[in-house]
Amino acid sequence: MSLTGIVRNFFLPRQKELERHYTQGMALQKEVQDYLVRHARDTEYGHAHLFANIHDYDSFAAHIPLNTYEELKEYIDRMRHGESDILWPGRTKWYAKSSGTTNDKSKFIPVTADGLKNIHYAGGTDTVALYLRNHPESRLFDGKALILGGSHAPNYNVSHSLVGDLSAILIENINPLVNLVRVPKKQTALLSDFELKRDRIARETLHKNVTNLSGVPSWMMSVLSRVLELSGKRYISDVWPNLEVFFHGGVAFSPYRQQYEELIPKADMNYMETYNASEGFFGLQDDPADPAMLLMLDYGVFYEFIPMDEFGNEHPTVLPLWGVEKGKNYAVVISTSCGLWRYIIGDTIRFTSTDPYKFIITGRTKHFINAFGEELIVDNAEKALAYACQQTNAEVSEYTAAPVFMDNRAKCQHQWLIEFAREPHNLQAFADILDHKLQEINSDYEAKRYKNITLQPLQIIKARPGLFNDWLKAKGKLGGQHKIPRLSNSRQYIDELIEINNSAKND
C-alpha cells in the first residue's frame, strides 16, 4: 500500500464530521458563538463588553460593537508589548502582518495558539481531507508538497514574539512530521529576499518528486518559471510527472488558469481554491465541479454579514449566517479565537447556496471603482478579463484599474494598466471586448456607459514586463502575502505604476 493509502485513514473521522456543514450550518455557528464568548468572558475586552450577559445572538450583537482595525489597534498594540488577557485569554506571541489601513502602513493581526490550531491548521487539515475524499486515486503523500511561505521578524523587543506573513507563521509552527513531506527546507521558505528565495526553492525542488503545490498563484508562477529555466524543460509536468494538484488562494485564480494549464498540460491536474486570510481560514472548494467554496463553520470563527448596499451607513443591517440570501453581495464580519470581535475584514462575498452555505469571493470593500456610480467590483473585472482573454487568445499576468475623473466636459473613464503574459493581436479590440463584457455583467456600469454620455470607453495602457513586481519590490513587498490592488477609487497606485512604466521607456 502507498503512503497515501495509509495516511488517508487519518482523515476519515474528519470527513465524517464535515457532513454537518451540509445539514446543520446554523447549529455549528451557534456553538462557535457560545465557545468564543465563554472563553473570552474574563478578558479585558470581555469585561468591558459584559460578555457574562451574552446568551444568544441578539445579546451578542447588542453588547459588542462593529470594529475596524482602528478600533482594535490599541488593544492589539498592548498585546504586542506582552500584555495578557486583553482580547483573548493568555499571551499572544504571533502577529500576521497584513496590508495597511488609511492611517497605518501595516496591520498586525493576532494569531493566538487557539487560533493557530483551531482555525488555520484546521483549514489545512480539511483541505487535504476534502481533496482525498474527492480523489480516491490520489497519491498525494507519496511525494513532496511545495509550499510557499513569507518571512517573519522580531516583534518589538518582546521575547519569543514575532511578526510576519501568515504563511511564515504557519511554517514556523508546523508539526515536525509535516516537514517530512514538504519542500523547501524551512530556512529557505522563510527567507525575506524573494528573488533569492525563488532561486533556492527552484534548485531545492528541481529533482524532488513534487506531487502538490500550495501558495498564491502569482508567486507560485514566478517559482515555476525559475524551475523551467533551471531544468531546460518546456512543461512543469516534465519536471514533476506526478504533480496532481495546486492548492491556491490569496488572489483570484481566473487570470492565471490558462497559464497554469499551459505550464502543466495534464488532463488529470487538479486545482482547489482555499480562502485562508491573515484573519482566519474561511472557505474551501469542496466540489471540483463547483467554483464556489464551502464556508467553514466549526472553526473558531463566528460570521456576520453586512449587505453591501448598506455598507458605510452609520447603522447598517448586520445579519448572522442564517439571515443571508443567495445572490446578494455582503461585507464579511468575523469574531474569532484570535481575539477579533465583530471585525470587518474588508472582503466581500456572494452566497451561491444556503443549503449548504457556499460562496464566491467578489472583491474588497475598498478595492472597487465607484467614482461615478458604476459599482465595479473585482468579481466583475475578473470575469470580464477572462472573457476578453478567451476571445483574443491573450493572457494577463497582472493588472490594476482606476478612474480618470471628469474633465470640464463632464467626461470620465476607467483606465486599466495591464501586464500581459501573451499580448492580444489587437489591443483596442481587447479593450472593446472587455468594455462590452463589463456592461453585460454590471448594469450600473452599463447605465453609466450609455451612449458615452459621461463614462467613456475604457482605456488600456500596456505595462512593460515585470512592472508590477518592480513596484512591489520598491515598496519592500515582493513575495509573501502582498497583493496587487486590482481596483481602486483613487489614482494613487496606478499613477505610481504608470510613472515607473514611463520612466523605463525613456531610459
List the helices and strands and how they pair.
Blueprint: H1 3-17, H2 25-39, H3 44-48, H4 57-63, H5 69-80, E1 94-99, E2 106-111, H6 113-134, E3 144-147, E4 152-154, E5 162-164, H7 166-173, E6 182-183, H8 186-189, H9 194-205, E7 210-215, H10 217-231, H11 236-239, E8 245-248, H12 254-263, E9 270-277, E10 280-284, E11 293-295, E12 301-307, E13 319-320, E14 329-336, E15 343-354, E16 357-364, E17 368-369, E18 376-377, H13 378-392, E19 395-404, E20 413-422, H14 427-441, H15 443-449, E21 459-462, H16 467-474, H17 492-506
Parallel strand pairs: 1-5, 3-6, 3-7, 7-8, 8-9, 20-21
Antiparallel strand pairs: 1-2, 4-5, 9-10, 10-11, 11-16, 12-13, 12-14, 14-15, 15-16, 17-18, 19-20
Description:
- The chain is of the alpha/beta class and 507 residues long.
- Helix content is 37%, strand content 23%.
- It has 17 helices and 21 strands.
- It has helices spanning 3-17, 25-39, 44-48, 57-63, 69-80, 113-134, 166-173, 186-189, 194-205, 217-231, 236-239, 254-263, 378-392, 427-441, 443-449, 467-474, 492-506, and strands spanning 94-99, 106-111, 144-147, 152-154, 162-164, 182-183, 210-215, 245-248, 270-277, 280-284, 293-295, 301-307, 319-320, 329-336, 343-354, 357-364, 368-369, 376-377, 395-404, 413-422, 459-462.
- The strands form four sheets. A twelve-stranded mixed beta sheet has the order 6-3-7-8-9-10-11-16-15-14-12-13, sandwiched between helices. It has a four-stranded mixed beta sheet with strand order 2-1-5-4.
- Helix 9 (194-205) crosses helix 10 (217-231) and helix 13 packs across helix 14.
- The longest helix has 22 residues, at 113-134.
- The radius of gyration is 23 Å and the shape is globular.
- The mean pLDDT is 92.
